[in-house]
């Protein structure tokens, strides 16, 4: 399938989902996207005693719009990476504007796929991620943040190379090119996909509007399918070239080293060497990341920062700080 047919398929899929977005917005009615988040982030109460002393210490208020905009920043990243890989260009200008500082996605290029299965996966995920951007922008309306500056390039000092270097896949001065082969593309996708799943799961308890929560759950399910596709493809190829499974494990370890003391992230095999396509806890439940932990990974830092890595100038919106590990 040539590039023009792939673009046509992506646009056709987006058109089919336009009706779904309209239904979503109609169902949401006049509900404000700025409703305060749950009591977990509301004002701290007193100790429950009868002193009657008013509480003057409050935690920052995070709205549903803040949560959706945080998700939109991540969708901008994923959508551009897959769009470049499949079509050779990032997402269109009509899906980039909004509040905050608008930036360009730079450095990507088309992958010369040789495996038709990987090519098909890439095209489908590209369409889904483009639809996620359009959907969230429609839900947020004028409150939607603009696409920030995004680095998806192959420079030795760029985000992908820095991530690969942190994982021990390349040495100082070398570059990692996720567009060089089917295998490199899958490793590049692996960096993002598990993070997206844990980000949506971690954010879901903070959403107060049930309509927005249902929509977020739907996106979470789609991201989980994407992560499963990428992990399955990598594992299958890794059975023939074990270095791929080893590389995925190193990426998993690097993510764990960035997002704090917990050891939740998982590679493609378990401690006994068995396949581990679905990373879960002992109860078979996927784990969560806080927004700060997610930004640790995409900023490629274990310190509290407002920019770095794949977002060289930071993300747009209220939620923009990584967490000190």
TrEMBL record:
Q: Which InterPro entries does the record match to this protein?
A: Ferritin-like_SF, Pigment-catalase-like
Q: Which domain of life is it from?
A: Bacteria
Q: Check the record and name the Pfam families matching this protein.
A: Ferritin_2
* Protein name (Swiss-Prot/TrEMBL): Ferritin-like domain-containing protein
């Amino acid at each position: 399938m040539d590039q023009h047919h792939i673009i046509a398929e992506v646009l056709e899929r987006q058109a089919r989902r336009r009706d779904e977005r309209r239904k979503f917005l109609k169902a949401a009615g006049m509900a404000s996207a700025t409703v305060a988040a749950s009591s977990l982030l509301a004002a701290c109460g007193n100790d429950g005693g009868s002193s009657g002393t008013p509480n003057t210490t409050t935690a920052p208020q995070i709205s549903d719009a803040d949560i959706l905009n945080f998700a939109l920043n991540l969708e901008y990243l994923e959508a551009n990476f897959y769009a470049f890989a499949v079509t050779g260009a990032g997402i269109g200008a009509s899906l980039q504007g909004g509040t905050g500082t608008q930036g360009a996605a730079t450095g990507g290029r088309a992958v010369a796929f040789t495996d038709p299965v990987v090519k098909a996966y890439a095209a489908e995920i590209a369409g889904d991620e483009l639809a996620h951007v359009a959907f969230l922008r429609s839900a947020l309306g004028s409150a939607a943040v603009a696409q920030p500056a995004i680095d998806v390039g192959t420079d030795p000092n760029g985000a992908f190379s820095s991530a690969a270097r942190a994982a021990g896949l390349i040495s100082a001065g070398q570059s990692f090119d996720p567009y060089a082969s089917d295998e490199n593309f899958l490793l590049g996708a692996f960096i993002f996909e598990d993070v997206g799943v844990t980000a949506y799961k971690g954010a879901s308890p903070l959403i107060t509007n049930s309509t927005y929560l249902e929509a977020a759950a739907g996106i979470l399910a789609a991201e989980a399918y994407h992560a499963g596709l990428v992990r399955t493809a990598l594992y299958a190829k890794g059975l023939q070239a074990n270095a791929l499974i080893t590389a995925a494990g190193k990426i998993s370890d690097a993510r764990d080293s960035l997002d704090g003391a917990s050891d939740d992230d998982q590679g493609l095999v378990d401690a006994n060497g068995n396949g581990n396509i679905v990373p879960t806890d002992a109860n078979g439940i996927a784990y969560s990341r806080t927004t700060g932990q997610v930004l640790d990974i995409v900023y490629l830092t274990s310190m509290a920062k407002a920019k770095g890595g794949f977002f060289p100038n930071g993300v747009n919106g209220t939620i923009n700080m990584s967490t000190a590990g």
